[in-house]
What does this fold into?
Amino acid sequence: MTTLLEGKVAVVTGGAGPRGIGFATARHFAAQGASVVIVDLERANPAAMAAELGDGHLGVVGDVTRAEDCARVAETTRERFGRIDILVNNAGITQKRTLAEISGTDYDAVLDVNLRGTLLMSQAVVPVMQAQRSGSIVCISSVSAQRGGGIVGGPHYSAAKAGILGLTRAMARELGASGIRVNAITPGLIDTDILVGKLSDALRAELKAGVPLGRLGHPDDIGKAALFLASDLASYVTGATLDVNGGMLIH
Ligand code: NAD
It folds into this structure.
């Protein structure tokens, strides 16, 4: 049977959370024939999660805020698999803050993982993709970028995720001539660990009531959208923002 990602090599950052969007994406990619490299912090144990995907996948400890880690991930992937076809910039953190509460440390933490991490990891893989003259980069932004936050992230999270949309579009414009597509996904409210401790039952019910599809999202909902953008099904799609939010924001 032909699969969508047969022979492809995919790097997924922040991919080691068992209930997270990154691991769901990694699972969908592996099921479609890709060799997957899961990148995550040491405490998340990316090697163990890569082993969960089956044989032929790799877990690499890496912090996307560090350029040397991103370069090492790209080099390790190229050495092991000989190519890099797909990058999913998924690693992210959020903090619930009001505008006045955001400290310099908060700003640095949230901007660094979400936005700098997306830049650094893209910079690390793009030369490999350029040499191949093909590649697909999928950046995980958020509905928060579009609606002005107000759910589980403060204004600095909205700004970081909006920055990812600008970066995605600029990379798409610059890299199109090299055969590299770059797109963003703006997830709505997805039931993952990132919500833990940030959502009361009352708020969860209220938010759910505002979603036309009548439920919070599942990590698989994002994994499937990432699979579409990463694969040849989206061969003429670049610079796009794909809303995967159950209709919570229709614009
Ligand atoms: P999650 O907390 O399960 O996943 C985030 C992953 O990123 C974790 O595995 C974490 O260890 C990893 N990570 C954190 N800092 C890192 C770093 N410096 N380097 C490498 N890895 C790092 O949460 P999730 O909900 O699966 O989030 C995945 C992405 O989706 C994030 O970018 C998040 O902002 C975005 N998102 C989530 C939602 C939602 O409702 N869950 C909505 C919109 C966008």
